[in-house]
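Limitations
The structure tokens in this dataset are predictions for the assembled complex, not deposited experimental models. Users should treat interface geometry with appropriate caution, especially where small molecules or nucleic acid strands are included. An illustrative entry is reproduced here so readers can see what is and is not provided.
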Amino acid sequence: MLLNIGPAHPAMHGIVRIIAELDGEIILNSDVEIGYLHRAFEKSSEQSGYLQVIPYTDRLNYVSPLINNVGYCLAVEKLFGLEITERAKYIRVIMSEISRVTDHLTCVGASAMELGAFTVFLYMIKAREMFYQLIEEVTGARLTISYTRIGGVKGDLPPGFEGKCKDIIRETRGILKECDSLLTKNRIFVDRVKDIGIISKEDAVSYGITGPFLRSTGVDYDVRRAQPYLVYDRLEFEVPVGEHGDNYDRYLCRMEEMEQSMRIVEQALGQIPGGPVLLDMDGNVIPAGNMVDEAKMGRIEGLRENQADVDPTLAGAHQSSYAKTQSPDRRVVLPAKEDTYTNIEALMNHFKMIMDGHGIRPPKGEAYLPVEGANGELGFYVVSDGSGTPYRVRVRPPCFMIMSALSHMIKGDTMADIIPTFGSVNMIGGELDR
Amino acid sequence: MTGIHIKLQEKFGAAVREIHNQHGDETAVADRSAFLTIVQFVRNNHNIDCDMLTDITAVDGLSLKWKPRFEVIYHFYSTKKNHRLRLKVKVDEQDPVVPSLAAEWGVANWLEREVWDMFGIRFEGHPDLRRILMYEQFSGHPLRKDYPYSKRQPLIGPKN
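Predicted assembly:
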């Protein structure tokens, strides 16, 4: 019998269609059809400037958008050969790891719910909500955050971030412990996931699977460890590795990875170079208006070292720690608003980067940069022709590879096993179909 | 191991047309006729041992007046040796065909379908070269540079 599952099915989190050939309840063969959420990410990226791609990357993996932001910006920075500030590196790491936790919480929570554990879902979404609120405080948005910039991040961490973050981590640990006791030895759950959706080590590598999915089969590959980017080489963490490559091992891997991510956040918070370090020379903070007046009279000596009390009309936001979170490279980072309004060089600099037909221009060339996304290796391949528009942006979506193996994994299992297997794939439509 | 691209050129001579190491990404451009041999070597040589095909994509060089027009780009990774390699094959508009790797790597099946869908590059020996992201009745290949960004086509549902 041929059976259509999807495209819109309550147990499919995402729009995907599986055409299964059944013998009774056993799946003999299946064809997975994707592309329902295709919205031309790669084509759109070729249309406008490098900075305009950042909001598009939010919408790739919308459960952990910060990692996409970071990955894209790192790839363009690689083209420039640009080194960002230490503080920005740590901020990126912290935000990426928070994003990873939210992604895993969603994945584990949702797939547990589909197997009947509704409590776990609610608990995990509660923890995710706390992290989302934290993300909102930092970036101003919950999902479509567009937080990173080429050369740094949009703004500094808000005051009191460290304390709040630590509180949330403590609470989340409690929640995870509770969920662990609800699921890990629960027979109803274990019977549904253990020895289901098995993929061997060799097959997983052949299908190009990465991330927790690959690690559950026993291959110890994590981009953060294998080819460290940002400051991951300075942080201590373990890479959990499974053994059987079944749904149960993937669940265990994800649970342990959340703990490791929170460990990374804690360490990064401890190591991050101090707050707004741009100490002004006299210890005075001048209001921006006075600064403009001073500059009009030509007294601009040392102005940039001053910490400006910028009002919203000038900067749109509080930017006291600007110099610590954005690279000083003039090719990519907009000059501070105080500068733009006070001297001609900065104004020209601003103009060149904003006006149509100018923009950020990496040198000609190509670069591929992988980061460890929540689902696995998230790679950006950017080709520049030296103009202000990317010639080609290719994203390597980690769940595309896992979805290509889905048909192989569900073969021989029963109909009901599709649900936990598909749940553990953590298919994200935005990333899969781009 | 570093310098894989140099090693490939030493081994295959003129079949590796050019190499570069821009931004630390080791890259070799392979001749199409020798492509399969080079891939076999990259996979099976115990020093290179690239067992994972991470990505296949293409670039359309129309606006840059590339001759030949397309570059098909393969990214390899070795889980055992922890290194990467980028392999390129150049194909022309008149004859956009590349040998398929679907028999060697499971993932090549879908990735090649995507490149076919987006660029119209065919993969010889692919078991099932259908469109993957676009729908069957879609005409043209959207990531080609001569496909206008604002072009619209009526969406046609699947056949019943």
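Some entries come with short summary sentences. For this one: The mean pLDDT of chain B is 85.
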